[in-house]
Amino acid sequence: MTDFLNNRCENRAGGAAYPRTRLRRNRRWPWLRDMVQETWLTPANLIWPLFVIEGENRREAVHSMPGVERLSVDLAAAAASKAAELGIGAVAIFPVTPSAYKSDDGRHAVDPKNLICQATKSIAASVGDRIGIVCDVALDPYTTHGQDGIVRDEYVVNDETISVLCDQAVNQARAGATMIAPSDMMDGRIGAIRDALDAHGYQHIPILSYAAKYASAYYGPFRDAVGSAKNLGGADKKTYQMNPANSDEAIREVELDIQEGADMIMVKPGMPYLDIVRRLHDRFPVPIAVYQVSGEYAMLKFAAQAGALDEQKVVLESMIAFRRAGASAILTYFAHDIACWLSE
Ligand code: PBG
Questions:
Q1: Residue 296 beta carbon below 6 angstroms from any ligand 1 atom
Q2: Mean pLDDT, the chain, integer
Q3: Ligand 1: distance of its center to the CA of 327 in Å?
Q4: Which H helix or E strand runs over 92?
Q5: Potential cystine with 106: which of 2, 21, 88, 139 (Cβ 3.0-4.6 Å)?
Q6: Which tens digit of pLDDT belongs to each residue from 145-192?
Q7: Distance CA 322, CA 335 (A)
Q8: CB-ligand 1 contact for 183 (6 Å cutoff)
Q9: Can you name the CATH fold of 41-343?
Q10: Tens digit of pLDDT for each residue in 187-228?
Q11: Residue 18: what pLDDT?
Q12: Does ligand 1 have an atom closer than 6 angstroms to the CB of 240?
């Protein structure tokens, strides 16, 4: 017989905590599950990446990312405005640069009339500071070889690249970027970009460093979306992006970026790298962003389209997993859908 009053099970020896302690009690009713929930997701945690193309009133489907579209500047501004209404924290703009503007040294990156600057200006004009505008700093949208930096003797050179990145960052801040996000993985670029921004009066503009960015095959659909895949050809980015096998190295990357002045650091990709998010969160008191990249979007989307997964449920579960691992901000192509679901 079981003596519930004294919390003892006759058929269980040893006087173990069970059944006095029953963890299922706190899961009994929805109100109680909510009361003890450790992490939450709000639209304010989200950053929505937008692909921008030339022209007016134009949208193009991205075939490897069903549901994602490349938008002309006017439509991108309208999308950002809608995102602001939904409470999304920020948009991250990625330009699809026409090949005529690409060059060996990616100099179009510093042109104040380039697409990312046009989009930034137009979003800032229509949405003001109701939403953050994150601009990516790296040369890959502008180089004929598709690498993130300047290439000399088949090697992406560090210091020479950084001087262009500094000009690129200032160019974007001038257009109205409210967060500068270097994604190039050059050494020392955070400090240099900080100095450049400060020297030009942008002391108040935060830097979100892609600090632990891995040389990942999950970026495939993104490179299709922005059209850098064909430029890159069969080449990879392994001399600057991190080896997926490494974890201690992420700590060194982040430590340096914090010393150099990063305001927020990013782990990328997301789901396959949750262990990195957790390690960094345990170690550094700095806000962490995580990027659920294009390949992760494609995996979830295609599986949902095939009827294998419930899209809304798996996407929300992936979001709460990022929050649980320690991320404050999440870049995701699902941001708009998520914000709609959360408001239902
Ligand atoms: C460019 C950049 C990339 C992504 C964001 N910025 C691609 C790359 O490094 O090749 C990937 C985003 C995604 O896959 O969703 N520096």
A1: no
A2: 95
A3: 19
A4: strand 90-95
A5: 139
A6: 999 999 999 999 999 999 999 999 999 999 999 999 999 999 999 999
A7: 14
A8: yes
A9: TIM Barrel (3.20.20)
A10: 999 999 999 999 999 999 999 999 999 999 999 999 999 988
A11: 78
A12: no
pLDDT at 16: 64
Pairing label, strands 69-72, 132-137: unpaired
Q: Which two tokens stand for residue 245?
A: 């096998």
Residues in CB range of 294: below 8 A, 6 or more apart: 64, 65, 218, 219, 220, 221, 222, 225, 333
Domain residue ranges of the chain, discontinuous segments joined by +: 41-343
Residue-wise pLDDT for 301-344, tens only, equals 999 999 999 999 999 999 999 999 999 999 999 999 999 999 99
Note the pTM of the prediction, 2 decimals: 0.95
Mean per-residue pLDDT for 73-84? 98
Widest pairwise Cα distance in the chain: 83
Options 102, 121, 213, 301, the catalytic residue:
213
64 Cβ below 6 A of ligand 1: no
State both tokens at 99: 């090949």
Two structure tokens written together for 208: 């979100």
Cα 118–119–122 angle (5° rounding)? 85
Higher pLDDT, 246 or 229: 246
Q: Confirm whether 268 is a catalytic residue.
A: yes
How far, in Å, are 12, 143, 259, 324 from residue 187 at the CA level? 60, 20, 13, 30
Distance, in Å, from the CA atom of 163 to the CA atom of 267, rounded to the nearest integer, reads 24
| Cis previous bond, 43, omega within 30 | no
Annotation marks residue 301 as catalytic: no
Give the pair of three-digit tokens for residue 273. 């790298």
Out of 219, 226, 267, 330, give the residue to mutate to test ligand 1, the one with the largest number of ligand atoms within 8 Å of its CB: 219
Gap between the Cα atoms of 194 and 204, Å rounded: 10
Percent helix / strand / coil, the chain, rounded to 5: 45, 20, 35
Burial 111-136 (b: 16+ CB within 10 A, else e): eeebbbbbbbbbbbebbeeebbbbbb
- Three-class DSSP category at 283: helix
